[in-house]
Amino acid sequence: MSLLSFLDRERTVAGPGFSRWMVPPAALCVHLCIGQAYALSVFNLPMTKLIGISQSAPDDWKLTDLGWIFSLAMLFLGGSAAVFGRWVEEGGPRRAMFTAGCLWAGGFLLSAFGVSIHNLWLIYLGYGVIGGCALGIGYISPVSTLIKWFPDRPGMATGMAIMGFGGGAFIASPLSVWLMGKFTTATHIGVMETFIVMGLIYFCFMMVGAAIVRVPAPGWKPEGFVAPKENKLISKNDVYVYDAVKTPQFWLIWWVLCLNVTAGIGVLGQASAMSQEMFPGKITPIAAAGFVGLMSLFNMGGRFFWASTSDYIGRKNTYFVFMVLGFVLYCTVPFAGATSNVVLFVCCFLIIISMYGGGFSTVPAYLKDMFGVRYVGAIHGLLLTAWSAAGIFGPVIVNYLREYNITHGVPKAQAYNNTMYIMAGLLVIGFICNFLVRAVNERYHMKADNDTLGSPAAARG
Amino acid sequence: MATQAQDPSMTTKLVLAWLFVGIPLLAGVIQTLINAMKLFQ
Questions:
Q1: What SS3 state is found at A13?
Q2: Domains of chain A, each with CATH number or no CATH
Q3: What is the model's pTM?
């Protein structure tokens, strides 16, 4: 009972003397852990040899079967963020982080059991479903809390947390490889033990985040804070979560995010093959691996840089930059290929991928500007379905267009040109959607202030 | 940053909290940078 009350929102209200700079590390404790999802692929090859050890045996799992683990996790990320968003908002960040930590560790432990008895369905359930729910709840858990603590720099604050999601793979990837090396013997591949250790490490890490997170006391403002000047695109009113989805602004931003992510995710997954095929002999497989690593760094850095920049130039303008600059860069890539200019090619993709990350990290502050702070976490959760949709569109466009071009006799080096122009076209549509974003009609604003979250009728007055 | 005077022990807590998340992240970034350098070799 005492543990449950420790998780209550009321128990997380910061006392006098608390520094708001304690909250970003709390958020990072969660995001760095769930960011492991981006490094899941390091287990793919070892998991295809659990029986055969040195090579795959007939009863070993296939790569195509293992690919479903990540797809399920992403699907449940979007679904759980949408379904549990309001619960996260009303229960407070500590309850959400604690739940995410339990689910994340539980998912790893169940997956470890699945590995030990060689049952792939248990891994689908453990990592895919339970872990996917942890991803969704954990991802949105610190968003509104950070925005409340940093009303002067909401983009920077949420950018810092979401940067952690991009950076989680940097920790997980070498850690997984190192742990598997420690537990692997001549007759056994140490995936199960690695899952157990990682589950326990992540549990401890996420519990630290849940313990140190605090929400500001009602009416708290940072010292010297001056509310921004009258701006139609920065609302001072809150919109209830399920009213937000009735507004055109929600769906316009949904498409802006979806198109920006579609353009980025398609090339992110194919960067290694694309760079080698566009520059045969110039970019080796080892260099391509370095290129992918560099892209991951720009993906992470872009999350912080662009979200922080949006505090100064505005959210709408930041997305205009993504769309216009992205359009120019995508159109430049075929030219870089035709002129064999590797440096230009690399620079184009590094900037593109920084804007892909920036699209994720700037959107919570964009939503806060449109719909207010009160339900921003829950609305953000609903918006993450755009990510799930983009996860399907992006790779499909890139892969199928490449196949289509190659089967129609286009040389491999030029097979990606049409894809680049289509990505540029998507950004034009994104530009139009962003252009159409206006202030939310006041009929959607919550009418009366009510400290008890979760009562829309009361809140509406 | 808070409106009230900051708790003196808060500075220590802040340093510990940032080290707790910063050290693993920095180690991961350095490792990735080392791998990324292969692009220029």
A1: strand
A2: 2-212 (1.20.1250.20), 241-444 (1.20.1250.20)
A3: 0.88
